[in-house]
Design brief:
Elements (H helix, E strand, L loop, with lengths): L10 H4 L3 H9 L7 H11 L4 E4 L6 H15 L6 E4 L3 H14 L7 E4 L5 H9 L4 E4 L1 H10 L2 H4 L7 E5 L1 H4 L5 H9 L8 E6 L4 H7 L11 E4 L12 E7 L5 H9 L9 E4 L3 H13 L4 E4 L5 H12 L5 E4 L14 E4 L6 H8 L9 E7 L4 H11 L4 E2 L5 H25 L4 H10 L9
Parallel strand pairs: 1-6, 1-7, 2-4, 2-5, 3-4, 5-6, 8-13, 8-14, 9-11, 9-12, 10-11, 12-13
Length: about 450
């Protein structure tokens, strides 16, 4: 867990329980951030809350602090549900709740796809205090696991939507409705939404009429959030790269004297690209891991652990890694593929230059990406510089032939293993999902 930037005051003055202040202090978290200072007293006062702040600003403690304080006053059955779009983020939040509440014998259930449904049902039957879940898997339990398993959800006091802008998209609509439908009515629970991007859907909730019998919704955005979309310590560059030699340019950068020891996340738009790059770089003796939705959950977890422990210094990832994950040592982010959504660039770049540290983002720009780069520059209110550390002649001379050979072998191995067939079958069964997996 990250120790956040000091911003005055302390947690005791915000109304946090003494035991929780001690738990935070043991993690070297002593000074509240802006969003924590703004939201914690309001949530403790019983208000629903929408909190907007950029990645790395301490949103988890902004909701975990007051919820745990309230829970410790009456540590009963299922007290709170936290929903979040990705398994990895759910795992991280569950770990943070468990660590914060360890002195109080807190019980936290993690309910995500890729894990045993039977074991999760057994955990839910034990009435854990908190459930941290992805909507798809919790909705499955609501629909299929019976009253003994999910009946306790009817008495939940808090619902948290973390990365709310993603949860409020069409991808999650049906599952989210199923999950919320089994909870107490919104007049009988507190609803907390936290996001790094205030979208139109979030804005609609901010502007909704007051709920009768409840205190007015509290809405907070870190001042000028959009004007500081990327930190001043982030260097943003672009590199014009022909599509057919992108792998060679990436390899040359990752093995250059400047970046040869740097920790890096390489963001791609498709799982197949992530797998090709992982295999290709591994053949070229780069310490690499990958993170994408087609991997079994245990492999995804292992990849994150390896990267955090520096057993792998390069992580190839789809956007399951662009949101909220606490990976504090990343020095370089490469947008190998450019997203059509400028906000995605902001979330990806947010993996580096955190907590005042310097970091660098490089965008690989093909001939079809120019408009996307212009949209990103407009969104971040900043022009990118051209990346000049790697030159065409060096790539051709040093990297192209061996990278091409490694890629060819990787593609042959993937074809032999029928990579992607499982996804095609699942898509045909369930209808094609876009963006994040729902479970």
């Amino acid at each position: 867990m990250t120790s956040f930037t000091e911003s005055g005051g302390n947690f005791s003055t915000l109304g946090i329980s003494k035991w929780l202040v001690e738990a935070l202090r043991s993690m070297k978290i002593t000074q509240p951030t802006d969003i924590q200072r703004a939201c914690i007293p309001q949530i403790l006062g019983g208000r629903d809350c929408i909190g907007g702040a950029k990645t790395g600003s301490g949103k988890t403690i902004a909701f975990a602090g007051p919820i745990l304080t309230k829970w410790s006053e009456d540590p009963s059955g299922m007290f709170g549900v936290v929903l979040t779009p990705t398994r990895e983020l759910a795992m991280q939040i569950a770990e943070q709740f468990t660590a914060l509440g360890s002195s109080m014998n807190i019980r936290v259930a993690l309910v995500v796809g890729g894990e045993s449904i039977v074991n999760q049902a057994i955990e839910l039957q034990k009435k854990p205090h908190f459930i941290v879940a992805t909507p798809g898997r919790l909705a499955h339990h609501v629909m299929n696991s019976g009253e003994d398993t999910v009946g306790g959800l009817k008495r939940v006091k808090f619902l948290v939507l973390d990365e709310a802008d993603i949860l409020l998209t069409d991808t999650f609509t049906e599952d989210l409705a199923t999950c919320v439908g089994v909870l107490p009515p919104k007049t009988s629970r507190q609803n907390l939404l936290f996001t790094a991007t205030v979208t139109d859907q979030v804005q609609m909730l901010q502007n909704a009429p007051p709920v009768p019998g409840k205190p007015k919704l509290f809405s907070y955005e870190v001042e000028s959030m959009d004007n500081v979309a990327v930190p001043a310590t982030l260097k943003t560059t672009y590199l014009l790269v022909p599509e057919q030699v992108k792998e060679a340019y990436l390899y040359q950068i990752l093995t250059s004297s400047t970046y040869g020891e740097a920790t890096a996340i390489i963001f791609v738009n498709r799982t197949v690209t992530a797998e090709i790059l992982r295999r290709t770089l591994k053949q070229l003796d780069v310490r690499v891991a990958s993170l994408h939705s087609q991997m079994p959950q245990q492999e995804r977890t292992n990849s994150l652990h390896r990267f955090r422990a520096n057993a792998a210094r390069v992580l190839i990832a789809t956007d399951v890694a662009s949101r909220g994950l606490d990976i504090p040592t990343v020095q370089l982010v490469v947008n190998y593929d450019i997203s059509a959504n400028p906000d995605t660039f902001i979330h990806r770049a947010g993996r580096t230059a955190r907590a005042g540290r310097a970091g660098e983002s490089i965008c690989f720009v093909g001939q079809r990406d120019v408009e996307r780069i212009e949209a990103i520059e407009e969104r971040i209110n900043k022009k990118m510089d051209q990346f000049t550390d790697v030159h065409d002649t060096a790539v051709i001379r040093k990297a192209l032939s061996k990278v091409t050979a490694a890629k060819r072998e990787s593609l042959m191995a993937m074809e032999k293993e029928n990579f992607g067939e499982r996804r095609k079958i699942n898509n045909r069964k369930n209808g094609k999902e876009k963006g994040y997996r729902k479970d």
